[in-house]
Design a protein that fits this description.
By secondary structure, the protein is of the alpha/beta class. It is built from 8 helices and 5 strands; from the N terminus they run E-H-E-H-H-E-H-E-H-H-H-E-H.
């Protein structure tokens, strides 16, 4: 492992494996902070998914990452971001002479949808999902369909989460740290 602080950014569309990957990374790198959009949005009173709220969350995340790196703490970030978002996190890492690693997780839409349905089912104590809930989840995938075209990956290393299990994905990332 490297001895200087680092910033690992993990992004990708809904169901690509970001949360699983960042939590496993955090287990393997217990001295690194994990900053995740889903966790930050829970701190926003009366959270509504709109551009203003998402901007606030992204700015809070950047401030947290900046402070962690200033204090010499490595960071693992889970976020759905655009190329300029990747660049802003890279700038924060450079400001603190931290190593920067960006990964884009990828999987076909059908697999991502299946994962999201399974995760939602687990959150509802294993009950079968009603068709209305499945339709709601499918609605979230409409904007995700354009994720890859709207968010160029030339600033990230792409990892196909269909081809690798969670531990293999984490090992791939950890190997880059050595």
């Amino acid at each position: 492992m490297i001895n200087t602080p680092f910033l690992i950014l993990v992004d990708g569309p809904m169901g690509s494996g970001k949360t699983t990957t960042t939590k496993l990374l955090n287990e393997k790198l217990p001295d690194a902070a994990r900053v995740a959009l889903p966790d930050i949005k829970r701190l926003i009173p009366s959270y509504r998914e709109n551009e203003k709220t998402l901007t606030v969350i992204r700015e809070v995340m950047k401030a947290m990452v900046d402070k962690y790196l200033e204090l010499g703490v490595s960071v693992i970030v889970e976020l759905i971001t655009k190329a300029d978002g990747i660049d802003s996190f890279r700038s924060i890492a450079l400001k603190h002479s931290a190593s920067f690693f960006a990964y884009r997780l990828s999987a076909p839409k059908e697999i991502r949808m299946k994962r999201v349905c399974e995760r939602t089912k687990e959150m509802t104590d294993g009950e079968e999902l009603p068709q209305t809930k499945i339709a709601e989840l499918k609605g979230y995938f409409k904007p995700n369909d354009q994720f890859y075209s709207n968010n160029p990956a030339d600033r990230s290393e792409i990892i196909d989460t269909q081809a690798l299990n969670s531990n293999q994905i984490v090992e791939t990332i950890l190997n880059k740290l050595s």
